[in-house]
Design brief:
By secondary structure, this protein is an alpha+beta fold. The chain is 48% helix and 19% strand. The protein has helices spanning 3-6, 10-56, 59-69, and strands at residues 80-83, 97-106, 117-126. α2 runs antiparallel to α3. InterPro entries: TadE-like_dom. It comes from Georgenia thermotolerans.
């Protein structure tokens, strides 16, 4: 029996052994790439929202701005936390800072990587610029 006949199915067996690992790697890259994209979207939305809060002192406008910068996420008021609720400076707090925190529960598309992941974007800015 020649060597060529003995090695005939080796490539198919090797491919069958490696294919699940390659698929897991590709799916993992896609899932965590999506998580990174959502995280940067949340951070950008929080940063724009806190800018509106610091300059215009309006919680309603802040939440609308955050939703405008992340329209595909369908954020609710409970997911957008604005502190403090007013950006007025007083004698006791002459340099108040506003903070906007946006949370979003991300579901993995494939379900291979465990439970949902809660992503958070946060922005902080001194009131009145």
């Amino acid at each position: 029996m020649s060597r060529k006949q003995r090695d005939r199915g080796a490539a198919a067996v090797e491919f069958a052994l490696i294919l699940p690992l390659l698929l897991l790697l590709v799916v993992g890259i896609a899932e965590f790439g999506r998580a990174y994209h959502l995280q940067t979207t949340l951070s950008g939305a929080a940063r724009e929202g806190v800018r509106v809060m610091a300059l215009h002192n309006s919680v309603t406008s802040t939440r609308e701005t955050v939703r405008g910068y992340a329209p595909d996420l369908h954020l609710t008021d409970d997911q957008i936390r604005v502190t403090p609720s007013s950006c007025l400076t007083t004698a006791s707090t002459p340099t108040a800072t506003a903070t906007v925190t946006v949370t979003y529960p991300m579901r993995f598309v494939t379900g291979l990587f465990g439970a949902d992941l809660t992503l958070t974007g946060k922005g902080t800015m001194r009131c009145h610029g």
